[in-house]
Design goal:
single chain, 378 residues, mainly beta, Immunoglobulin-like, 4 domains, nine-stranded mixed β-sheet, seven-stranded mixed β-sheet, 2 helices, 47% strand, rod-shaped
Length: 378
Amino acid sequence: MTVLVLHAEDNRPFEGIKVKVEGPSSLSGTTDAVNGVTPFDPVKPGRYTARATLPGSLEKDYDPPASGAASVSAGGHALITLRIGKKKVVTPAAPIGHWIEFKFVLPDETPVSGLDYVLVEPGGAQKPGTLGSDGKVERRNIPAGAYAVMLKDVAQVTWLPGHARCDDKVRLTAQASGFPSGTPAKVNLYREFRETAADVIQSLPARVENDQIKVEWKYDYLSSEARKNETGVARFIAEVELDGGKYWAKSALALELELRTIKTLEWSTARIEAGETAEIKIETRGFPDDTEVRLELWRFGWNASKKVGDFRPLQLAGGTASARCPYAPAGAAELAITRSGEYFVIAKITGAVSRTARSSLLWCVYAEQDATESRPPS
């Protein structure tokens, strides 16, 4: 008896296949490389069943072969043929009609899940939904046309400009996707690092228009005595919320707002001699240009200081102003220092918010013309 193993596609011999035969005798063998056969001789007369076993390297590409059977008589010969075929590749049926598929993933290819979205259909109709565990939005049997998916989100909350004076109006912008124009929004304002629900200093109504949210704001620093007395730079954070706070985002950078402050009031030098001139300079924050500044010149005394006179009123430009003061013992037409000693300046800005500052001391050294004055300490 002979067992023949062939390729089912073209009847080529299949070598190296283990064959087992069961019947009056139990036999086993391996097909050869030339003809793909396994001969068994002699065998007892009777009916036999032959089976082939695929090696592991072929199991992924070939289907297991069917068994074969034959009877052999005394003095006779029987042939059993086994055919091994390749696995059939099943191609999924093409979807019926038109279809779309969107998939949202993180940079590491992990699907994004749980986020709300809006599917925009041809013609503008919007269908809401929520991403499942696979991050996909799928539709089958739909009309042809352009489709878009927008995740519902608010982001890029930005102050414009990021640094301003307390009298300036500033603008806040944010990007909102997945919300139709006209959707109500709210902007909550906080002092930086004090951003709990109890710390909201003001809430502004807003709306989504063409995927953007825009509001204007001006800090009301005159609303209380505490605010009027604030100086330096105040920093504000904005939080934009939609759908009752389900979607929200905060400004990444704080708005820096200059409050009305006299930052410095300084002499250009600490010491001058007769015939020289010193300059007094004021630097402010938060005050608009053309704000009037009044400067008073005082002569320092350990028991009591004495006012010498007033400079001409100055106007701020770019937050600064300055005046010149000569040391002229012989007298001068303008306000001048005529006696040796130590002098300081008091600056005053009045209005809805008033500020006062005092300068350091300027030492006007002893002059021969001023023999009645004591020499100041070195």
